[in-house]
């Protein structure tokens, strides 16, 4: 028997085998995404063990994270466009292979240089696999209801994977050692690659001759890498050096934009930014991710440095987040978007995120997890579970089919830039506030707690700004 897709403009028959292949393809894409998302977060709880084992200095240790972020964020836009040209399946499977090989290198690393190099290679592989996923999902599920369900499943994996990585990082580090946070990717990566080769439908792509603007690629990749480098390393440089690097990044972006406007075969079609919904969704996402990413790191530090939690206890404390996000996204998100529309669901989610951050800004020094930490954690999880799929659907609806890979890469790029920016700003504010209080004679733990509360207050303001921007730019009548 065959089924008929609901709400299709003309009835399209879908055989059971085709439906199965699409579900299998969705599972493969989600599995690859989960592996890269987990590894972007799993390392945070293991940082003290890595520092002790390899003898990193404080500033040097930051490069275990920064090397990944710079390569990942800098390459997303380029590999997203290349996925449109050479075929998204090829780019996805190549990314899985590079990421898995780099994970093994990181797992066996015994020197600082090898670990940092392996993390940069992981970032490159993660970018290759992640940049084309949304474009593949849109092509696999063109009908609105099915697409909403697929995006909800993808968003659930990506969103819950971040918090789950914190738990797994603590568990593996405490039960075995930090090497296993990387080595565990070997069996997962091999299985995901084999499944992707077998299940994903082949595609030819437009061909490199249709848009291989190599000078433009060099300009935008350099600009994005330098931007992420400026953000994640701002605390270790003088203001003058940071301003100079930021000016250089801006100059590279300007040169890239001018080239794209004049070249016959641009890497990035500037018409993409004429879509108000696509541009607005990326701007809103940058603010929302800045809030959530900052909370994830500042919240973990609060539990460890103020409440005295260990690595495993910190990971366990965050565990309700991926559970709540997964259940809500898979169980309710697609249906609520289909019933009320992405715009309304997005606004409701942003309201919950702002409320959760506002509650966190009041956490006391001697907090109770059940009374002071868990309620805002669940509010943030519910808000993100509502907002992220709705925002993703809005963003991808603003791109043409031939630009789907590029739009996917752009959406992922704003995630990295927003997360890096939020982390840099909020952690700097917290450290500055704590340092000022210590200089005036305050005790360490109360001063540290007040620094984190300031960061949470600023994050609340960023969430409110995202809500206002979404209401102004993404309102259906204003598009």
From TrEMBL:
The keyword Transport applies. Its main location: membrane. It comes from the Bacteria. The chain crosses the membrane at residues 26-49, 61-79, 91-110, 116-139, 151-172, 178-200, 212-232, 238-258, 279-303, 309-333, 345-365, 377-397, 409-431, 451-474. CDD domains: MFS_MMR_MDR_like (cd17321). Residues 25-478 form the Major facilitator superfamily (MFS) profile domain. The keyword Lipid metabolism does not apply. Pfam families: MFS_1. It is a multi-pass membrane protein. It is found in: Cell membrane. Keywords: Antibiotic resistance, Cell membrane, Membrane, Transmembrane, Transmembrane helix, Transport. PANTHER family: BLR6921 PROTEIN, MAJOR FACILITATOR SUPERFAMILY MULTIDRUG TRANSPORTER MFSC. This is MFS transporter. It comes from Streptomyces camelliae.
């Amino acid at each position: 028997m065959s089924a008929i897709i609901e709400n299709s403009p003309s009835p399209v028959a879908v055989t059971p085998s085709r439906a199965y292949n699409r579900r299998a393809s969705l599972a493969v894409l989600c599995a690859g995404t989960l592996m890269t998302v987990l590894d972007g977060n799993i390392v945070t709880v293991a940082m003290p063990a890595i520092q002790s084992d390899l003898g990193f200095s404080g500033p040097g240790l930051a490069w275990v994270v920064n090397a990944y972020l710079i390569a990942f964020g800098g390459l997303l836009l380029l590999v997203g466009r290349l996925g449109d040209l050479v075929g998204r399946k090829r780019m996805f499977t190549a990314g899985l292979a590079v990421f898995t090989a780099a994970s093994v290198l990181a797992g066996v690393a015994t020197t600082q240089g090898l670990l940092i190099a392996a993390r940069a290679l992981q970032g490159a592989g993660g970018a290759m696999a992640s940049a084309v996923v949304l474009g593949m999902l849109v092509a696999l599920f063109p009908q609105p209801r099915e697409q909403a369900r697929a995006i909800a499943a993808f968003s659930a994996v990506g969103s819950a994977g971040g918090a789950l990585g914190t738990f797994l990082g603590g568990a593996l580090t405490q039960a075995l050692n930090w090497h296993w946070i990387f080595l565990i990717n070997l069996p997962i990566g091999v299985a995901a690659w084999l499944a992707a080769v077998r299940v994903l439908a082949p595609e030819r792509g437009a061909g490199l001759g249709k848009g291989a603007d190599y000078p433009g690629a060099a300009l935008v990749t350099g600009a994005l890498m330098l931007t992420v480098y400026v953000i994640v390393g701002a605390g270790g440089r003088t203001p003058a050096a940071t301003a100079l690097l930021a000016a250089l990044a801006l100059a590279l972006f300007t040169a890239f934009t001018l080239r794209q406007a004049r070249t016959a075969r641009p890497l990035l079609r500037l018409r993409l930014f004429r879509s108000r919904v696509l541009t607005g969704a990326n701007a809103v996402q940058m603010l929302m991710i800045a809030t959530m990413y900052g909370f994830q790191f500042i919240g973990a530090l609060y539990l460890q440095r103020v409440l005295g939690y260990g690595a495993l206890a910190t990971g366990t404390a965050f565990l309700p987040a991926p559970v709540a996000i997964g259940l809500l996204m898979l169980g309710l998100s697609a249906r609520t978007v289909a019933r009320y529309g992405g715009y309304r669901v997005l606004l409701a989610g942003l309201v919950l995120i702002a409320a959760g951050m506002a509650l966190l800004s009041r956490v006391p020094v001697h907090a109770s997890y059940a009374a002071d930490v868990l309620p805002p954690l669940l509010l943030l999880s519910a808000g993100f579970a509502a907002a992220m799929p709705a925002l993703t659907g809005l963003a991808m609806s603003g791109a043409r089919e031939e630009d789907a890979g590029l739009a996917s890469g752009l959406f992922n790029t704003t995630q990295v830039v927003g997360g890096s920016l939020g982390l840099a700003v909020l952690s700097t504010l917290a450290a500055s506030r704590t340092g000022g209080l210590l200089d005036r004679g305050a005790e360490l733990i109360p001063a540290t707690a007040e620094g984190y509360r300031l960061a949470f207050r600023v994050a609340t303001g960023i969430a409110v700004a995202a809500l206002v921007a979404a209401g102004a730019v993404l309102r259906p009548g204003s598009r």
